[in-house]
UniProtKB/TrEMBL annotation:
InterPro entries named among the record's database cross-references: FAD-bd, FAD/NAD-bd_sf, RIFMO-like
Keywords of the record: FAD, Flavoprotein
One Pfam family linked to the record: FAD_binding_3
GO molecular function terms listed in the Swiss-Prot or TrEMBL record: FAD binding; oxidoreductase activity, acting on paired donors, with incorporation or reduction of molecular oxygen, NAD(P)H as one donor, and incorporation of one atom of oxygen
PANTHER family linked: BINDING MONOOXYGENASE, PUTATIVE (JCVI)-RELATED, TRK SYSTEM POTASSIUM UPTAKE PROTEIN
Name by which UniProt lists this protein: FAD binding domain protein
Length: 506
């Protein structure tokens, strides 16, 4: 029997497996696909934008260097080469978009983010699904995660003490089961969790084609009276056809069909001569009503799906894994405070909901209607203002992430600043062991005694820092989120109370 069985070796399942192994939990991953490779996981359709919280999570686990091998990635804006340079040091360039409407980095008011420090993990970036999965799989193997490919989870039964899982004609037992098996999750269905949301308005197409007359299409993104398309030379096209999602997964994607949709949306009489690669998607936006039912948990697309507009799904899923791993590990060890595991859903569900709405709002701008063109014009005006660009950057880059953890300091619930300590190390590096961290900037302070004896092991570091941001001490959870912070002499009772939400005294 394994402590945890994970269904699905996608990026979320693999990252969660690494998080659990970091805490010495035994993990089995069951993956339906025999072969992890697919052309859809490679450039161009496999490109995935990673938001700042995702990059920070990978950095805090020592995975960022593996991911940023320069030949294999480019930054989120399409510039080649390593992209870990801080956003504040970049020349003028687009910072991202909302429904295709760009905001620019030099229009962003970074003074609104007083707690962000320069960091190797300070910028969003992009990679391919193939690359991130392979980096995570290598790490998972090295950490002793057992991955069984060719095993499709078909059903489950849970009891008070564990879960029995049927996969590939065999039976497996885990004390817990986590469904990371994507949008059509069997674990979610068999685990009895409802999935609710809004039905699709369109079928989206990502296709790679050869055309007899490519000059008939203008490169770039275009809203037309019948939909939207983006064209990148030599032959990469994305299209949105407002058919109510009717085509998606109902028929084979043929050359004739692609040509007909492209003509219909672009209004250009193009001739497609070769269909090299094609996939469809929709704006169906659904979320599990809970991320936990007994010993069955959900993470990633298994818990929430939405259109890829704005590229948030992978980020949301990896954030789920970072939030869940240490909480589930503490629960298995028996040293989790009451309610810690349930805080996974309490913290992550509202965030998932927000992201689903973010994708829905983009659909409202994209509809082929006069009112949507009017909305687009207003959004363009707003995004060009300094406040507008800053707002969109916060949302797109993930900087607005803040859990409602109580506490009166504005940093509580946010990602910890990457303090550079007196010995040259950074806070992010100190989190690689997956433990909590109590950082006191006054070595003579009384915090060390408090830190010792907390369950799961909270590292204590007393050090000066290059920029303390006016703080005297900070307690950081294993997932890099600030649990408590103070600017004056630490109130030990307040600290102990904040810590008691995440750790128990041994
Ligand atoms: C065109 C497109 C562009 C996108 N761009 C972005 C982007 O830029 N940024 C971003 O953040 N997100 C983006 N996304 C979304 C992102 O790809 C997903 O949110 C992400 O892959 C979810 O990861 P996951 O591990 O939860 O699920 P998946 O990647 O779907 O992995 C699930 C795994 O479970 C396996 N599995 C399924 N069923 C079973 C079963 N019964 N038993 C065992 N194994 C099973 C599957 O084979 C798969 O390996 C995009 C999506 C699309 C379609």
């Amino acid at each position: 029997m394994h402590d945890v069985v994970i269904a699905g070796a996608g990026p979320v399942g693999l990252f969660l497996a690494c998080e659990l192994r970091l805490a010495d939990i035994s993990v089995l991953v069951l993956e339906q696909a025999e072969d992890p490779h697919s052309p859809l996981k490679q450039v161009p359709f496999g490109m995935r934008g990673l938001s700042v919280p995702t990059v920070e999570a990978l950095y805090r686990r020592g995975l960022l260097d593996d991911l940023t091998a320069p030949q294999r990635m480019k930054n989120a804006l399409g510039h080649g080469g390593a992209s870990t340079a801080h956003w504040m040091q970049q020349p003028r360039r687009p910072g991202g978009h909302f429904a295709g409407i760009q905001f620019y980095e030099d229009n962003i008011d970074t003074a609104k983010w007083p707690y962000r420090l320069q960091s190797p993990a300070g910028a969003s970036m992009a990679t391919t699904m193939e690359h991130i999965e392979s980096v995570l799989a290598v790490r998972a193997h090295a950490m002793g995660v057992e991955i069984m490919r060719g095993y499709s989870v078909e059903g489950l039964d849970q009891s008070d003490s564990g879960v029995t899982i049927r996969a590939g004609g065999e039976t497996f037992h885990g004390r817990w089961l986590v469904g990371c098996d994507g949008g059509r999750s069997i674990v979610r269905k068999a685990g009895g969790v409802e999935f609710v949301g809004t039905e699709p308005e369109f079928t989206g197409y990502s296709v790679e084609v050869e055309m007899a007359d490519p000059d008939k299409l203008v490169p770039g993104r275009h809203y037309t009276p019948t939909g939207m398309y983006t064209y990148q030379q030599p032959g990469t096209v994305a299209m949105v056809d407002f058919d109510g999602g009717a085509f998606h997964r109902t028929r084979p994607i043929t050359l004739e069909h692609v040509q007909s949709v492209l003509r219909h949306i672009s209004g250009a009489d193009v001739t497609v001569t070769t269909l090299k690669l094609a996939t469809t998607w929709t704006d169906r936006a659904f979320q599990a009503t809970t991320y936990r039912n007994g010993r069955v948990l959900l993470a990633g697309d298994a818990a929430h799906i939405h259109s890829p507009l704005g590229g948030q799904g992978l980020n949301l899923g990896l954030g789920d894994a970072m939030n869940l791993g240490w909480k589930l590990a503490a629960t298995i060890r028996g040293d989790a405070p009451e309610g810690l595991l349930d805080s996974y859903c309490t913290e992550r569900y509202p965030l998932g909901s927000q992201i689903l709405d973010w994708s829905r709002a983009q659909v409202a701008v994209m509809r082929p209607s006069r009112s949507s063109r009017a909305l687009e014009a207003i959004m363009r005006d707003l995004i060009e203002t300094r406040d507008g660009a800053t707002y969109f950057a916060e949302r797109v880059w993930g900087l607005s992430l803040r859990y409602d953890l109580g506490g009166c300091h504005p940093l509580v619930g946010r990602s910890a600043p990457d303090f550079e300590l007196a010995d040259g190390t950074r806070l992010g590096e100190r989190l690689r062991n997956g433990k909590g961290l109590l950082l006191g900037f006054d070595p003579a302070g009384p915090l060390q005694a408090l830190a010792s004896g907390w369950s799961g092991g909270v590292s204590y570091v007393a050090s000066d820092a290059r920029d303390k941001l006016g703080l005297s001490a900070v307690l950081v959870r294993p997932d890099g989120i600030v649990a408590w912070a103070c600017e004056v002499a630490p109130d030990q009772e307040e600290l102990a109370q904040a810590a008691s939400r995440y750790f128990i005294k041994a």
